[in-house]
Amino acid sequence: MQLTDRPTIPGLSLRRPLRGSGDGPPWLAVELATGHVVVVRRASGALTATDLPRHPHLLVAQPVLDEAGEAWTTSAYATQGGLDQVEPGRRLLPGEVVTVGVAVARALASLHQRGLRHGAVRASSVVVDVEGRPLLDAAAIRPGAATSDEAVADLAALGALLIELAEEPLPERLGALLRQAANADRIETALGAADLGRELMFACSPRPLTLPVAGAPGEPRPARDPRWRKLTPERLRGLSLRPLLLRGVLVAVGLAVAVALGLLWSHLADAPQASAVGDRRGTLPVAPVADEPIPPPGGRWQGILTGLDQARAEAFELADPAKLGAVDASGSAALARDGEAVAALINQRVRPRGQTWSVLKVQTLYSGTGRVVLAVTDRASSYQLVHLDGRLAAEHAARGPSRWRVDLQWSGGRWLFANTSRIG
């Protein structure tokens, strides 16, 4: 690609081309005003944000013009790709199936209410953003009113996709609901996309998608250097022995020097410290800035997490979104997920009873200014969903020990949830 092929779009800083087809590759860019990473593509026949409903789980394109007046679009950068690319061959746990199903069903419902259909509900069209949220890619949607049969076809495609992705055996209620959706185009049913999104919440407890964990601070694993190749007998015979011996000698000398320096440092560290007043050879203690977080010792994270879990359980039991401000950081993926869960409880007029989480083990993966990443092992209690009049709506069994990646953010003088995703 020539440098002249790079478009100049006000408000965007284009970084590099991505793989693509058609009228040239898409570009990875950064919005100068927000710092958000986006993908820039040439405008096609697909509908843009001006034609589509606003929905948190619908990935839509925003129309923009370059300096030459050509039409382009920008959309969020889904770093994990489609569900056909995230951990290939791995099946989703029942709770993850619910997370994906509820998000996509609600996005479909918003389209159907506008008289639109998606028409391409498959694993590659359900993408995962940088925070681990499933999004339905709207790139396949074309103008034109959808018939009721086409809306039913979207529902059937979603049901079939969830069955295909799910790990067997599924809980009885969840399996029956997905089969009903998958057969919506062949049997008479009153089930719609909005109904499926609501019923899935009763069928099984949702849980965050399990994404590949590459270590803090959560960036994808870098590809292995292509120069690192397996040392085969054929390659060994082609190598000169003298450089290998010289390299071995240099490595041995380096190790010896490192050991000597380590012993010297240990001796100095164990020596008694000078206590004379006015000795200024040591560094002076620096007082921390009032708003700067001081990560506590590892043992204290367990207490912090327990307090956050208790506050979260109270917010769910009262179905009070305002209480999530004491649990999740503003604008975070955790707040978006918990807010949706509270909204679902309000809409369905149910409340959880007896829902608790117990933190068993905490390991610090990353610690930086204003942010920490923890590996947390916990378990969840059994609980009930009850109607507002006290009638039992559903029962959920206890969950055994599970390992999670938990991102905490320092905000307003306290640690709050920023994101969570399951490990392994």
Task: Please describe what this structure looks like.
The protein has 3 domains: 3-76, Phosphorylase Kinase, domain 1 (2-Layer Sandwich); 94-203, Transferase(Phosphotransferase) domain 1 (Transferase(Phosphotransferase), domain 1); 298-422, Nuclear Transport Factor 2, Chain: A (Roll). Strand 12 (383-387) and strand 13 form a beta hairpin. It starts with 11 loop residues before the first strand and ends with a strand. Helix content is 31%, strand content 22%. It has a 5-stranded antiparallel β-sheet with strand order 1-2-3-6-5, with no helix packed on it. A 4-stranded antiparallel β-sheet has the order 10-11-14-15. Strands 4-8-7 form a 3-stranded mixed β-sheet. The chain has 8 helices and 15 strands.
